[in-house]
């Protein structure tokens, strides 16, 4: 794979490596030995960590959070993974992310891992909270616009 590892990738780079066009944000990496389980393939928890590792720069690049005291707190309400085929040590992969829908103070993300074929899919519901731990933090118009323009997301009301 000629993609740089651990660097956010846009639609053009992803498409050049056979990633379907609905995926416009991703990151390449290689399976590490520490991610292998007793069955000699990637442990299911590794995929959830890959989703998390991509969600952080995604939220920064989409203007959701700067990860400082002035930014909303991002909380996972739900997370899911579906495994299609095993992955093995030293295998190159691309993990992708997109927002498919949003509400007043939450959004639903989908993920996919390609190596080069689809290996894993996932989803998460992310809720924004005020930093003081109290009320929810409403998505700004800029956040919603980024979801719609960059990912084709839709409002759920």
UniProtKB/TrEMBL annotation:
PANTHER family (alphabetical): 4-HYDROXYBENZOYL-COA THIOESTERASE FAMILY MEMBER, NOVEL THIOESTERASE SUPERFAMILY DOMAIN AND SAPOSIN A-TYPE DOMAIN CONTAINING PROTEIN (0610012H03RIK)
GO molecular function: fatty acyl-CoA hydrolase activity
InterPro entries: 4-hydroxybenzoyl-CoA_TE, HotDog_dom_sf
Native species: Tropicimonas isoalkanivorans
Family, per entry: Belongs to the 4-hydroxybenzoyl-CoA thioesterase family.
A Pfam family recorded for this sequence: 4HBT_2
Full protein name: Acyl-CoA thioester hydrolase
Superkingdom assignment: Bacteria
Keyword ATP-binding in record: no
Keywords associated with the record: Hydrolase
Gene3D superfamilies, per the entry: Hotdog Thioesterase
